Amino acid sequence: MPVAIVTAAGQGIGAALAKGLSERGYDIALMSRSNAAEKLAAELGGVGLQGSVTEPKDLEKLVKLTLERYGRIDGVVNNTGRDPESYHASGPAYDPELDRSLIDITDEAWLFGIELYFLNVVRMARLVTPIFQRAGGGSIVNVSTFAALEPRLIFPVSGTTRMALAGYTKLYADRYGRDGIRMNNILPGFVENWPLSEEVRRTIPIARATHMSELVSMTAFLLSPESGATTGQNIMVDGGVNRAL
Prior knowledge:
The chain is 42% helix and 15% strand. The protein contains 7 helices and 7 strands; from the N terminus they run βαβαβαβαβαβααβ. Helix 5 links the parallel strand 5 and strand 6 (181-188).
């Protein structure tokens, strides 16, 4: 059976991805800041630990635990939580009445965003790339955001730092494709586990939130050999809400 790591898997998108991959035949290793990932892993017959994606030692523990349990790693799903500056549940792409000051965001908030949304992927890649090279291949899927292509004032830190992630993903794909290793980003829009106002729903061409099952299907596809020619990409799963080309 293939083996996949999923981070921030205690609830929300991460938990849905863990369940979906397990249903598709993956052995799973999970991590979350609470003990919820450990409990979910036990339910799914996998392994889990409590830790944070912003802590390099926790990522090391997760990779080590996975190898000890399964002896291999075939895929990694880098999911994460939300930074405090992304405080709006939902909102339109541009709201002229939104009083959101960029200059009041502290250095600490920007640096935390880099740790949470960018360096988590960089650090995990350092750990698993040699493993994938020895195995002859592997796939990494990063859960990003639709704001990575069209930054929004409602998600200032998330959108900006995940633009950096998009650049890193392309560089990684260029370098490690020769080793059979791929990296892609999925960019969810407004997902069904978060409140969706009627004002925002009207801006979504499919007129609804993205279903968790749709994120699971895309992630499973990108982890699988069926997507073997897909790497370095930012794939929107947002119902068409993003207006950027």
